[in-house]
Amino acid sequence: MFCTRCGASVSDGASFCTSCGQPTAAASVPVTAVIATPAVAVAGAAFPAVPPQPVYVPAAAAVPYAGFWLRFVAYFIDSALIMFIFGILAGIAILGLGGMAFLQNIPEELNAGNPAFVASLITFYGLFLLVALLGGWLYFAIMESSQRQATLGKMALGLTVTDDKAQRMSFGRATGRYFSKIITGLIPLGIGYMMAGFTEKKQALHDMIASTLVFKKP
Fold it and tell me: What is the pTM of this model?
């Protein structure tokens, strides 16, 4: 036998030429022996197709919505923090009005029917409520629409607030969510809040109004 490429002598039965590496006729393999199994017609012969393999898709994990009790504890933490801060501010304001003497004179002045004192007391109380309302709004709306998407109480428990597409809320939506709690609070027995324990997506009434969700980080 001779190599068809370089002409060198090749021993009988050799698969390759020892001079140039060219495969010999003995190394050739019938086409039908190396064709893969997908359905292909070669020289009139059809090869069987590989049966389709089943594709297994894992079941989707349960969405980690935050339930009622987690949200209750987070709200308790936030409320305690806000009350502490506004308690300090109220104390500073009272000191500016006369301190303990002002507090001790309240019953006496009210019994005396001093109109100037009553007006000043109503003004002070009204301003305090207004500051508390605005402060609470800014605290919740700014923090829940921030990059962290949570108040300090929610951060402590690993909760985040999103819109209904699980995206970061805008400040406007966070504002709507905050003031929607007024409607939630009007429902007797706290049912508007307890809805977070049994609705499909663990939404309280204000979440449904503002189209928001609360998640528990894994």
Answer: 0.63
